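User: What would this chain look like folded?
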Amino acid sequence: MNKFWCCLFLIFFGISSTHAQTIAKTWNFEAVEDSTQQEIFDVNPGTDFLKLENGTFEFSLKGEKLNKASGNYVFQNDVLVLFYDSPHDSIQNLRVQSLTDSTLTLLGKNVHYSLREQPQEVADVLPVETKKEM
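Assistant: Here's the prediction, encoded as structure tokens.
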């Protein structure tokens, strides 16, 4: 009977963890708007990004005159807290308004950040070729 419950638990855990969405990705900014949905400044999806990986982040948003920022982050209960190391020590609290597998919407102090997942490059997906000898 214990084996049955153990197997059932493992199956349930495996299914539920495969559908979990993760915030640890590289995100491209699509829009930065105020509370009235007016664009605060133009964004460049090619160069403006937020990279979240292993508890650290990198951030670049040219419209805010922020060429590069980095630090650590904590994500829990739809709250994303950024602890900046550079350019200066500060803390920014953001609420995750929506999170899907390809989109992320963050809400700061009367500012809405709309982001889209950066597509993976083919080189990141394909395995490295190896030399085969006979």
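The longest helix spans residues 2-18. If you want, I can go into more detail on any region.
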